[in-house]
Amino acid sequence: MGKHAVKISNLDTEKLIQMLNEALAEEWLAYYQYWVGARVMEGPMRSEIEPELLLHADQELNHAVLVVGRIIQLGGTPLLNPNQWTKFAKCDYEEPTDPYVEEILNQNLRGERCAIQRYQDIAEFTAGKDHATHQMAVQILNEELEHEEDIEAWINDLDRMREDFKKLRM
Question: What is the pTM of this model?
Fold first, then answer.
């Protein structure tokens, strides 16, 4: 951020850089959780869900790119070592030890809900003070909300499929 922008921002830039580095760590972990989960996933609707999870992974990676750019613009240093990701992240990385599709989806849903809170907090922190970061946070927040909606829809479809199967067996 330029000197004039810092002067008029009335914002704790160090705190914001910390928040953004936490978000960056979470984006990397989310990327990997989506990517590896899509690769190991088993069960019904796998062929429909896998490409969408890979798309979500790509979007999480794009979020990381935006966040890194903003950290640098603010005069900060993005996390330089992957060992820092789990230390900075407030959202959990859930290892996909159970590859069943519904478990993978539930893990990703919990991650999305945490990310939604993260970007809501950044948007609130920067509202009216740092328009560039605020706009970025809102943009990412909107994508995270779409991810949550997609995952909830797939879980509902699986529930519906299970109910239909029960009816057929009766």
Answer: 0.92
